[in-house]
Design a protein that fits this description.
mainly alpha, Arc Repressor Mutant, subunit A, about 65% helix, globular
């Protein structure tokens, strides 16, 4: 309930169908247990206040203060987020309509959240355009070794029967073989989805020149390492982020 309430709060006191549609990869029954009941415990405005306060408290616990690097990263991310495309990105748009925090750590978190939702909305659009349903995309993600099956089954509430149904649909598309592993076509298709998402998301940084992008990564990556070292973030996440990407502070511009 806290996850669905806090993340959906920018949309207002919406019902389960809206949250299911926008979040995309959760089972409708999973969402319906939390929304709209969440609004009986905390209004969207209260949820937003607590969300920001708790995020700042967590950052401070990891040693993220209001230093120069935090201010620089927050300002650069805010510049990008303020001009990133809105079209087809409802959760990003709802978050961008919120007041900007004044505190540097809060600005850093808010700007990062905006760009995370901007890319998330773009990924949903790519999945829809390629005919990949919300439940199937989780299974494809796991079969591509981006996240453990057990983790995604628990966090996204699958039973064995639904999981197998999704595998069967992917097999019918030629993406999974008889042993339940991705085919060459499946691996190529998964990479196509990721590359397409990157391509339609990179315009979020059009407001920054190359020097600003390098400065952003060189200030933000050490802050990210500090958060990871704080121990609150689990090693496995549904997004399948790789911590090896933090070995280099550069933006890898090509």
């Amino acid at each position: 309930m806290s996850y669905f309430g806090a993340r959906a709060a920018p949309l207002g006191a919406v019902g389960p169908d809206v949250v299911t549609a926008v979040f995309y990869n959760f089972a409708p029954s999973h969402v319906a247990r939390a929304v709209p009941a969440a609004w009986e415990f905390a209004s969207p405005s209260d949820a937003l206040r607590v969300r920001e306060d708790s995020a700042v408290a967590a950052l401070r616990r990891c040693g993220i203060t209001d230093g120069a690097d935090v201010r620089t990263a927050a300002d650069l991310l805010a510049t990008a987020a303020a001009t990133a495309p809105l079209g087809g990105r409802p959760l990003f748009a709802a978050n961008r309509a919120l007041p900007w925090p004044a505190e540097p750590a809060a600005r850093l978190w808010h700007a990062s959240t905006l760009l995370r939702e901007q890319r998330g909305d773009a990924h949903v659009a790519v999945l829809v355009a390629n005919g990949v349903g919300g439940r199937d995309c989780n299974v494809l993600h796991a079969l591509a070794d981006r996240v453990p099956r057990e983790f995604i089954m628990r966090s996204r509430e699958y039973d064995d029967r639904e999981w197998q149904t999704c595998v069967d649909r992917l097999r019918a598309g030629g993406f999974v073989d008889g042993q339940g592993a991705l085919t060459d076509s499946g691996r190529e298709f998964k990479q196509h989805l990721e590359d397409s998402t990157d391509r339609v998301s990179l315009s979020a940084f059009d407001a920054l020149d190359d020097d600003e992008l390098e400065r952003l990564f060189r200030t933000l990556t050490p802050l990210t390492r500090a958060v990871v070292a704080g121990g609150d973030i689990p090693a496995a996440t549904p997004m399948g982020l790789g911590r090896h990407d933090l070995d280099d502070d550069g933006a890898h511009l090509t």
